[in-house]
Amino acid sequence: MTEEYVYKNEFGQVNFKLAEVMFKKNISKNKLCKDANLHFQTLQKYYKGDITKIDIDVLIRICHALECNFNDIIVFNTN
């Protein structure tokens, strides 16, 4: 399973690979919400790439719960 969501504007794009990492680590949204102390709606926005402002605290908690780094779940490309 490879799911990647993209936020794009004229300066570049951010690809969100949270779904892919969660699948590889076999962790559900509910489990990640509990482990990262997140509201489901907040996680859902990151999962779907439906955000325009990234909250570093949220990313830190997600990465801690998934035992990964920022670059494992988001990628920035300039075009």
Walk me through this protein's architecture.
The structure is a single chain. By secondary structure, the chain is α+β, with helices and mostly antiparallel strands. It has one domain (5-77): lambda repressor-like DNA-binding domains (434 Repressor (Amino-terminal Domain)). The chain has helices spanning 18-24, 29-36, 40-48, 56-66, 70-73, and strands spanning 5-9, 12-16, 74-77. It has a three-stranded antiparallel β-sheet with strand order 1-2-3.
List the topology elements.
Blueprint: E1 5-9, E2 12-16, H1 18-24, H2 29-36, H3 40-48, H4 56-66, H5 70-73, E3 74-77
Antiparallel strand pairs: 1-2, 2-3
Helix pairs in contact: 2-4
Question: What labels would you give this structure?
Answer:
49% helix, 79 residues, 5 helices, 3 strands, globular, 434 Repressor (Amino-terminal Domain)
Quick structural summary:
The protein is built from 5 helices and 3 strands. The protein is an alpha+beta fold.
Biggest sheet strand order reads: 1-2-3
Q: How much of the residues is beta strand, in percent?
A: 15-25%
CATH superfamily: lambda repressor-like DNA-binding domains
Low-confidence segments? none
